[in-house]
Amino acid sequence: MGHYILSKIFPPYEVKVTLGEVDAFLNQHAFLCKDVVRSEVASLAKVADKTVHSIRIDHMKPDHLALVLITNVLGRHLSSGQHHTYRGVLGMVGSDMLKVWSAAISRLKERGYYSADEADQDMQWIRDQVKAVG
């Protein structure tokens, strides 16, 4: 119990660094969707055990983990239909989310975390998701 409370008050270094990467990326690329995405990604990153494990044990870099968490949150939102004006057409917030998704996938590829094929597959997946729901 004590460890849990301490990690809430004083998050581990890995959580702080990952959240710093999230903020840097979202400040550069997100506009209308920034608060929603930041809030959900922060909730995921603050699961200290998972974040620490990803960085210390799986040897993910904090920027890589931040981008994966961002794309996970965006993928869930964009495939939910709640940001569509009507079927296959995104509203303003959804369009911003798609722009941020594309930027995150590009960054994953630029930094060598994704191959060109993986990036293309994820871009095709999100286009299919957007087209199918709403």
Keywords:
mainly alpha, 134 residues, single chain, two-stranded antiparallel sheet
Please provide the ordered H/E string of secondary-structure elements.
HHHHHEEHH
Rounded Rg: 16 Å
Number of domains as seen in the coordinates: 1
Strand order of the largest sheet: 1-2
Uncertain runs with pLDDT below 50, 5 residues or more? none
Q: How many helices in DSSP terms?
A: 7
Range of helix content? over 70%
Shape: globular
Number of strands: 2
Can you tell me about this structure?
The protein has one domain. It has 7 helices and 2 strands. It has helices at residues 2-9, 13-29, 34-45, 48-57, 62-78, 92-110, 116-132; strands at residues 84-86, 89-90. β1 (84-86) and β2 (89-90) form a beta hairpin.
Quick structural gist:
This protein has 134 residues and is mainly alpha-helical. Helix content is 75%, strand content 4%.
Topology:
Layout: H1 2-9, H2 13-29, H3 34-45, H4 48-57, H5 62-78, E1 84-86, E2 89-90, H6 92-110, H7 116-132
Antiparallel strand pairs: 1-2
